[in-house]
Amino acid sequence: MSSKTVILVGGPSKGTRFRPLSLDIPKLLFPIAGKPMIYHHIEAAAKVPEMKEIILIGFFKETVLRKFIEETSKQLNISIRYINEDKVLGTAGGLFSFREQILEGSPKNIFVLHSDICCAFPLKDLLDFHNQHGRICTIMGTEIESKYANQYGCLVRDEKTAELLHYAEKPETFVSNLINCGVYVFSPQFFDVMGKTMVDLRTSGQNINTDYPEITRKGFDSERLRLEQDIFVPLAGTGTISVFPYIGFWRQIKNAGASVYCQELYLNHYAKTKPEVLKKADNIIGNVIIDPTASVDPTALIGPDVYIGPNVKIGKGVRIIHSIVLDQTEIKDHACVIYSIIGWQSLVGVWARIEGIPNYTPFLYSQDKRKGVTIFGSGAQANGEIIVSNCIVMPHKQLDRNYNNEIIL
Amino acid sequence: MKALILVGGFGTRLRPLTLSKPKPIVEFANKAMILHQIEALCKIGVNEVVLAVNYRPQLMSAYLQPYEEKLGIKISYSHETVPLGTAGPLALARDLLNDGEPFFVLNSDIICDFPFADLLAFHKNHGGEGTIMVTKVEEPSKYGVVVYKEETGEILKFVEKPQVYVGNKINAGVYIFNPSILDRIQPKPTSIEKEIFPAMAADNQLYCMQLEGFWMDVGQPKDFLSGMGLYLNSLKSKQPELLSTGTGIIGPVLIDPSSVIEPGCLIGPNVTIGPNCVIQEGARLINTTVLEGTTIGKNSWIKSTIIGWNSSIGKWVRMENTSVLGEDVHVSDELYINGGKILPHKSITSSIPEPEIIM
């Protein structure tokens, strides 16, 4: 029962909503709860028995991911490989065109994960369910509040047989409150079905694609194929796909600010599954991860839901709540950081207040521009005693006055 | 000699502080506003001060009674049942004021060096019926400007909010009059500035003297804080021994000796801390008044704020932008208060990111 995992990582142009952080690091490597975004996926995949290989498919330069792949591969003792799509193929197009590499060694099951999601990745349960129901594809679905469901792929499932009866991607009207989590498991035969569907589509010429500007720019490519709209939609109700009902935390990591909320979910999960990674001390509240190389003054009060990265320096009487503080940043005495992401090598001066205003409903990121997580790009600096509230600060800016609700270029 | 202080009404501009105390006994630089004036009057031999009040005189008399003995001065109250403006109260208090000598009249909201001796000498020298003090301002177009002869100080006219520059001296709200002024005023609502002064000037009976040094009408929070800064600055040269110095202090700062400032704080400039306050470790105060019995939590940052009596501010709180907290207000840890006006006895548990009144 050997398995492989494919993680669809996209490319630089897919990370624009993650700016300014994606100016310094590809979105998929941004640390959430102290680990790169896709480390959580890989960690879960590596735990599945007989996991032979993890394949990342995307269109980043190979060099960007090399170090992460080497380190993670060693750390989790699993083979990880990156396949660079020379041309942008779409989610299913990539899978299909690299099917030989994916199916090499004859894995029985192929997990397919989107990179920009956060959940508990119960891959073993998903696999058991997949095998029980005997279809060649299983989609992990989760129920959310009806009013948010049309932001996602909506699944209609036969309650008795668990079959996917209908699939609608971001429908305008209500279809179902069971949504696609972006976590799948395929049997090898599913690649044949994908191939056939692709041929059908090509003949009918119906796959007009507006979601991938790269594709539109490069003109028609016969191999482009989106997993959700082009494959799941026509296959729903044909006895091909099952839906695994997942109960637990799930969220899309849509933009940089979402990392703060997703971090909170992962830290809660860690509290139950591996509490040893969480720091316990008198000046820590709730779930907090502090890199061992960081120095935190004992009079600083940290938490809940905070990550403090390597070589960060936290001064006397500092307060940090619901935030991510990245490598080599210095937070000076008495400063207060709330709902913020402080990028690499940044500086927050004495008595400065860096504050975001949380804006999430559970499954929809609010459009209210007066609310949001405050984000410092790398090397940004806030002078002492200022307040920066609900702002995005581009890398290497030095702030010497108060700012509110601004993008600071 | 006698003096009349125009105390007036509810002090609405200084709310929420004046919801707990009449404005004249709200502490300005750790001393009731009216005591700054009464003490200065005492120094030049005024032996009776009449307070023209139209709101809760008993609260004030209870507060001021001990000072009568301490300062050796008689304090009387002239209670207006209807507001009489700025001149009417003089007529109402006619019998209390008229002892045949010149008497002083003051607006209660103003703070300055009160050079009453110089004013008296100047007044006696020119022999006219009245003298008003004038002060130089940057933007005369906001005020009533006094136009006078440079050589003698004789006032020619008053120009209300001039659009064309006619001068930069305005009425400072400190006067001295001969008792004969009382014949010009009836005990009915009358404005001394708009009705009585122009008539006196027309009779060549009104002079002015320029006030040296600082001056501020502290009737509203923003000016209360600016006035405090000016006052503390003047203390630097006049009574430096009253001001705090040392590590963690950026002068001028006035701290009541009964208050505790924990280590690691940075206080000043322009800060007044009243009696029995505690400023916890690592707090930062700038341009702020903290009234009696208040505690400021660790690492909080407070600028341009007035904090009412017996309040408590949590840790890592940021307050700024002329926030005013009434009596017994409690602010939870880590909040941000931007220009909040908070009424007495409130507990604040969420931030006030934009200026707002919290009922």
TrEMBL record, chain A:
Sorted UniProt keywords: Nucleotidyltransferase, Transferase
Any one GO cellular component localisation term in the record: cytoplasm
Domain Nucleotidyl transferase per the UniProt entry, residue ranges: 4-214
InterPro entries: GMPPB_C, Hexapep_transf_CS, Mannose-1P_guanyltransferase, NTP_transferase_dom, Nucleotide-diphossugar_trans
Domain of life, per lineage: Eukaryota
Domain Mannose-1-phosphate guanyltransferase C-terminal, chain residue ranges per copy: 284-408
SUPFAM superfamilies, A to Z: Nucleotide-diphospho-sugar transferases (SSF53448)
UniProt entry tagged with the keyword Nucleotidyltransferase: yes
GO molecular function, one term: nucleotidyltransferase activity
Similarity remark: Belongs to the transferase hexapeptide repeat family.
Name of the protein in its database record: Mannose-1-phosphate guanylyltransferase
Automatic annotation (TrEMBL), chain B:
GO BP of this protein: GDP-mannose biosynthetic process
Residue ranges annotated for the Nucleotidyl transferase domain, each copy included: 2-228
GO function terms (MF aspect): GTP binding; mannose-1-phosphate guanylyltransferase (GTP) activity
GO cellular component, one term: cytoplasm
InterPro entries on file: GMPPB_C, GMPPB_N, Mannose-1P_guanyltransferase, NTP_transferase_dom, Nucleotide-diphossugar_trans
Pathway recorded for this protein: Nucleotide-sugar biosynthesis; GDP-alpha-D-mannose biosynthesis; GDP-alpha-D-mannose from alpha-D-mannose 1-phosphate (GTP route): step 1/1
Keywords, alphabetical: GTP-binding, Nucleotide-binding, Nucleotidyltransferase, Transferase
Enzyme Commission number(s) of this protein: 2.7.7.13
Domain called Mannose-1-phosphate guanyltransferase C-terminal: residue spans: 249-358
PANTHER family: SUGAR-1-PHOSPHATE GUANYL TRANSFERASE
Protein family according to the UniProt entry: Belongs to the transferase hexapeptide repeat family.
Protein name in UniProt: mannose-1-phosphate guanylyltransferase
Species this chain originates from: Dictyostelium purpureum
